[in-house]
Amino acid sequence: MGPLQGIKIVEFAGLGPAPFCAMMLSDLGAEIIRIDRKARQVESITNRKGNPVERGRRSLAVDLKSPAGITLVLRLLEQADALLEGFRPGVMERLGLGPDVCLQRNPRLVYGRMTGWGQTGPLAHAAGHDINYIALTGALHAMGRAGEPPAPPLNLVGDYGGGGMLLAMGVLAALLETRSSGKGQVVDAAMTDGTASLMTMFYGMKAANFWSDKRGSNLLDGGAHFYDTYACSDGRFIAIGAIEPQFYALLLEKCGIVDSAFEKQMNPAGWPELKDKLSALFKTRSRAQWCELLEGTDACFAPVLDMEEAPQHPHNRARQTFITRDGVVQPAPAPRFSRTVAEIQHSPAQPGEHSLQILRDWGFSADECKSLQADNVI
To answer: Active site includes 27?
Structure first.
């Protein structure tokens, strides 16, 4: 089992970054039970079986509108190390499960909160999605081609990098602190904060006059000819990232480039012309031919693979970066540990699939389980 074995977490079902956080913590060994609303189970709104982000947790469906349901959840939280929720500010408080109530029942509880805008601020209660949160931080403006609108980077930057991973780090840090203080606390993880944190290097580069707000004109945004993607003769793409002089020199050597114009690598004024020359060169061979010439060298090269191809690449196969579970090809748990191996604990659960099993495992008697079931609390 992973390094978080023995940690018990209660997750409140939601969308996007909070479930991703729970997936990661479960992959690392934490025992996580997901609280689904009982209405969702009855209405069969959601089928999670094919969604690997929902892997690793068991599900308990509870009527959170009933006092008995809230009491049940509070009993579970008395035994938990952490709580994860991704609702708008105030929702948990209105349910009777806000931080004050929960920490009174369990003073050691780490209360993890995931939102887009944060628990406070003028926009705290407004609706939004990843694209809105990253727009507010300067990140979205920086992404895209010159002369074109900003390009949405999937929902990797806000939801997952600046959201779910930030919450996971915050919860783990708070759990470590609890060991010495004996006290829990609230972790306020906002996607705006997390995305801003991811942009730290670029704000530093801007302060040093090494980054422009003009898209497609910088070192790492596709402006440089040596850091971009290029089409090949077969319509597929390759990625070049030869920043350091020695890697850049090797790229030129491998590609047979002897044009003196390429000697001024770091002169932005020459980048557009050099990019045109590289574009013409890379269209003379197929992606496979460029892989044969450049892959595995220090020219900082990789083929641009789609999601069908990526799991089949020899490097990913050798490292088992992708696995197949329940018929779904999906990324394997990460990172790797030498002794406490991370692994998927459960297949994605349907709402309420493990209700009775969870209650028994967490100390509820058989009579209590029957009563909760008879009263439609679970």
So the answer is: no
Cα gap 171→316, rounded to integer Å: 30
Map tokens 């402006």 to a residue: 223
Instruction: Annotate 153-206 with DSSP letters as a single string.
Output: -TTIIIIIIIIIHHHHHHHHHHHHHHHHH---EEEEEEHHHHHHHHTHHHHHHH
Name the pTM for this structure. 0.94
Catalytic site includes residue 159: yes
Q: Which of 27, 63, 159, 188 is catalytic?
A: 159
Beta-carbon contacts of residue 41 (< 8 Å; ≥ 6 apart): 61, 350, 351, 352
CA angle 254, 260, 264 (to 5 degrees): 95
SS3 content of the chain, % helix, strand, coil (to 5): 40, 15, 45
Q: What is the pLDDT of residues 137-195, one digit of tens each?
A: 999 999 999 999 999 999 999 999 999 999 999 999 999 999 999 999 999 999 999 99
